[in-house]
Amino acid sequence: MAKDNTQMVNEEMQQTIYKELGYKSYPFPFTTPAYLEAYGTLVGLKPPTAKTARVLELGATYGGNIISQAAHNPEATFVGIELSQDQVEKGNKIIGDAKLDNVSLVQGGDILNFDESMGTFDYIIAHGFYSWISDEMKDKLLDIISNHLADNGIAYVSYNTYPGWHTMEEVRQLMLFANRGHDESTHKEKVLRGKTVGSLVGAQILNYDNLKERNSKFLGALRSVMQKDDYYVGHDHLEPHNDPCYLYQFNDHLKANNLAYVGDADLTLSMVRTYDESIADKLEQLAPNSQADQEQYLDFMLDTTFRKSIICKASAAKDISYAVSNPAEVNTIPVRTAINNFTFQILFDEEALEMFENTLVKDTFQALIKDGGTFNMIEALAILKAAHEAANASDDELEPAVCSLYKAVVEHMVRGGIRFYKTFPEKQEYMEGLSYVPARFTNLVKAIADGGGEYIYGGNSFNDAIGDISEEDLMFMELLNKPKSKSTLTKKIKDTIFSADKSQTSKHQNAMAEAFYNELTKRMGDLGFLRNKKTDGIS
Asked: Where are the alpha helices (DSSP H) in 149-256?
């Protein structure tokens, strides 16, 4: 398909923006196969197994979202397509330095000439892409998903959303107006001019109480933009395309491409009934039997600015059920069966336990938190029953407590206080003499430390960004390349780091080495970098 002059100019401008401003490529936890598999399972779909998934990311930048995923999921395959040749080259260098053979980046032009021979993918990701491309490319994006997503696969597409982005649009137009007549300026200069003018306009509004009150939304949006990194402002507000849409428009676009809307990766935008029955009833009255339309009305209520939509093929949508979001159905057999599929991780701490009214449920969560916070429902129910027996509670109190437990788990799944996975990311606790750090993690951290950190963040097993990877991490990972005793590791740490400090006695050096050992072994486990000798079968 031939490009017109406008397309070529916009593509060249985007390439220039990337080169001048760069872009720090983040990992995003809600784009992983394991997250999307869990979400699909929650609403009744039967998505492909995350562990061995084939994953495509469109608009992959430097690969920061999929490189760490590849390291943590060696049996899965990841392919990223990116417009910027500069970003592809730098990302592939990181991949090469990390010695990862299950991830690659491809310079894909503007995706209009997508390589049809790439086949099908279990999961397709397009984060921060849909709003920043032309209408023709939007059509092509959904065409790719429609034709290259496995029949039971799941795709993720995020985009700026109205009505909330109307206010952000004012900020964008202000910055574009400030740069009118300055076509010769570099994009760095345009960002600086836009921020300077935005700050001046905001300061003038703040000088007058009536303007400050009238323009409070605009001031909030302006303040938010002024605090962003230059590369973010340059891409989000000064690129040729920034084309927000309403959810209903996106949903209509899906239908035209034989795709179906499943929900939002932010469950609070989809599972409203879980936490606000009154709003849910009103939404049902406004749009009976239409999940997408109900969410559109919710966007008007919440002034939503960004959507992370999960979609599937229209042929798979017949299996979708939102019963899990209805408190009246949480304790039915089908919903309990669905919840029993998952492994959970608690993200809140013991201070939050006061929110639980049922004492047995509170005691159950307290025990789960003390045990590390990872659990399945069999374990949680066993703890609850033991707490019930220890309290000498009557038999009549057990079933209400079980119902309260299921309801609490679902509520916190929706609110983000509990992560849930069908394929739980591999994460092992440190065991002396058994645990080690596989070379793929050490190589990745070394690639980031040696310069790749200028372009990407590493990610833990959940694909959360790791912003503080250090030389000490790398040193310890290299020491723990195979299982070793505590005494061997602490001696090496002492000799490597602390022995040169002659102001400390040998006893103090030993104590510092042991503290370093304790801290780093826990950190490696938390990041998901540890594997166990028995599990992996190494000698």
From this structure: 165-178, 187-206, 209-214, 216-226, 230-238, 247-256
Alpha-carbon distance of 515 to 526, in angstroms, equals 17
Does pLDDT of 275 surpass 90? no
Give pLDDT tens digits for 43-77: 999 999 999 999 999 999 999 999 999 999 999 99
168-220 pLDDT tens trace:
999 999 999 999 999 899 888 999 999 999 999 999 999 999 999 999 999 99
Q: Is the pLDDT of residue 93 over 50?
A: yes
Distant-in-sequence, close-in-space partners of 447: CB < 8 Å, separation ≥ 6: 94, 97, 98
- The span from the CA of 86 to the CA of 399, in Å, is 60
- What is the C-alpha separation between 23 and 281, in angstroms, rounded? 43
**Burial (Cβ within 10 Å: 0-12, 13-18, ≥19) of residue 106:** middle
* 69-72 contact pairs (CB < 8 A, 24+): 69/27, 69/32, 69/33, 69/103, 69/459, 69/463, 70/95, 70/100, 70/102, 70/103, 71/98, 71/100, 71/440, 71/441, 71/444, 72/425, 72/426, 72/459, 72/460, 72/461, 72/463, 72/528
DSSP conformational letter for 347: -
Measured distance between the N- and C-terminal CA atoms of the chain, rounded to whole angstroms: 55
- Count other Cβ atoms within 10 Å, centred on residue 58: 26
Q: Facing residues of 158 across strands?
A: 308
Report the pLDDT value the prediction gives residue 190, as an integer from 0 to 100.
Answer: 93
